[in-house]
Amino acid sequence: MLIFAISLLLFVSMQSDFLTEQKKYPRVRDALEKKEKLIVENLKNNGIEQSSLQILITAYKAEKKLHIYGKNHGEDTIKLIAEYDICRSSGNLGPKREQGDNQIPEGFYHIDRFNPSSNYHLSLGINYPNASDKKKGLGKNLGGDIFIHGSCVTIGCLPMTDDKIKEIYLYAAYAKNNGQNKIPVYIFPFQMSDDNFKRRAENQHVELNEFWKNLKEGYDIFEKEKKILSVSVDANGNYLF
Q: Among this protein's residues, is 87 annotated catalytic?
């Protein structure tokens, strides 16, 4: 029991050091000064403790919307707590398949980097190419460095205004500080209701339709259950839920 308690204390201490390190950066301190009160109040209104926050991010390319879902650590279901406009876009609907195609990825990802001194104010890295992209990609160079970031410019990323990226970054930083090492990011071509899917997919190439059907499987499960999905990838790069 003593060993377990010491291990738990060390784990919490290591995680807490993340936010301490982030506060060394001027843009993070500025974000905290301007946005912390707003975020804490929003979490309180949603019954979520800042020290227990876990999040999930969804993005919808056609609607140019980014949603943040939140819950307390240990809870199963997750609720919508914030919505933002994606301020610019590039490419067309459909996944990113190679370097230079200007496409925003589509699929099931997670945040793998925090950049508090980004060229685009603040940025959160997405783990593109993921296992699915690597199997379905074209050629040897699939590209990379896909971020949710500020500055409202993009070639393949999810850009926000500098004002709103402060909030998104802090939500993610709090969750990371609470031990959430893989913050899910689900990127959809559009809000994939049955009607939307029928309208958007009916004139698309068969290969794209099949890919979107696969994304819709995960979309439908998430919309029904409002839980973080358990996602894997088969030998052909298709998502399994």
A: no
